[in-house]
Design brief:
- This protein is mostly helical.
- It contains eleven helices and two strands.
- The chain has a two-stranded antiparallel sheet.
- α1 packs across α2, α3 packs parallel to α9 and α8 packs across α9.
- It is elongated.
Amino acid sequence: MTDVNTFYALEKAFSPERMQTYLDAARGDRVTALHHYARNAALGAAFHGPLQALEVVARNAMHAQLAKRYGNRWYMNPAAGLDGNARASISSALKLGVRIRASEQFVASMSLGFWVRLLSRGGYIDDGLKADYDRTLWRPALHKAFPGRPRRVVHRRLDRMRQLRNRIAHHEPIFGLDLKEDYESLLDAVGWISSDVRAWIEHHSRLPAALQAPLSASSRF
């Protein structure tokens, strides 16, 4: 279904504003705009597996190192020096029923944004008191999860992947991004933690084929 009538049907269902990005990319050709839309969906679907692997391997590696330093419930240990945002996220998770003793359940319940923020310099613990994640998290623990990589580099890379993940999750356009570079960046980030997981992603990922597929082949996703 790639005729002009299909475009109008999707425009009515999805909204003219959503379809305009694809129409602009197609220079007003509505059939080509449909191909762009389908390609965007196919690329987002192909990115899902690699992004999921990155998120899981990163949070598990970070949790393992923090647990060694501050105990299995490090997120409840004041010595970790977590800032107000982190403590608010933890409190919200616990209120939603995550049992404090079930650390694995806690780890899985926290968003990628939570883990990425732990790689930042840290915000404020309370009024006037600044967190120092370099001192409390990175140097004593988290640097071991990403051997040989500076904190700022790790933070930028994972935050970039977080932004891409959020764009896909919110069904935003990604087809105009440099997705080949993003994929290579993702593989590098996974490789910092586990070369085996990187190899597994490369073996199973549909993304290289999706990136190379001609636009006219994107009618199906």
